[in-house]
Amino acid sequence: MYSYTRAESRERRKLFFKGLRQSAADNVDPTIRHRIDRIDKAAAERGEQELNALYDTRGNDRQAVAQAKAAVRTASREEKAAARQALRDAEQQLKRSERAVNKAENF
User: Fold this and answer.
1) pLDDT at residue 1 above 80?
2) Of 32, 36, 40, 56, which has the fewest beta carbons less than 10 angstroms from its beta carbon?
């Protein structure tokens, strides 16, 4: 996964088109490729960190769902409604985090 900043996207796009024009003239400057590679490397590292953070969030949300299920099972009759609502909220948060991880992995 790559995570480019806006400045990196602009710089990469500018370098790409500069390299494209130079390749049409068969005179490609190797520093352009090196600069693009450096931008890609930084974006890949940032993307890896963001993906790991999403995995951690998903793991925490799974743990919250498990705890909420246990709370529903052990709740007294008066506390069951609140425990069920907490379970629904935890499941919705888990769905959001799983959706974010899937989107990041497939992007």
Assistant:
1) yes
2) 56
